[in-house]
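ESCALATION

Customer reports they have been waiting on this structure for their group meeting. Please prioritize. Original submission:
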Amino acid sequence: MSSDETRTVVQNGGVNVTSPEGEELQITAEELLIEKQAKEGFASASGYGLTIALNTDLTPELEQEGWVREVVRAVQDTRKKLDLPIEKRIVLTLDTDDELKAAIAAFDSVLRDNVLVTDVRFGEEAGMERVELGGKSVGIHIG
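Update from on-call: job pushed to the front of the queue and completed.
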């Protein structure tokens, strides 16, 4: 059944059907097993009389934001290893490819707000820690 047909059956409390032998049968809504299935590209969950659907398609912007959040996590790990105080503002130098540079430029505020960065620079520095983020190698130096 389509979603509209199913909705009508539930609202009416059942459906009348004709068996292959020609017998008229009434099937109540309680006798039906109704399953909700999300459309392609969506995920859904139901409970307490509500159904929520999420669009699961990844846009280029979402991928970029995800990369920047991975950089944030890696920088936080590096800060922790260096035993830096939480409130200390840092100068961050990253060695990465142009694709990640573009993502950082697009989501600069996410990086700055989450790791208290005063300046972000790109290039190589002595003593950089190298990490793998989503298949990308990134050098991190905190100064």
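Sent to customer with the following note: Residues 9 and 23 are 19 Å apart (CA to CA).
Escalation resolved.
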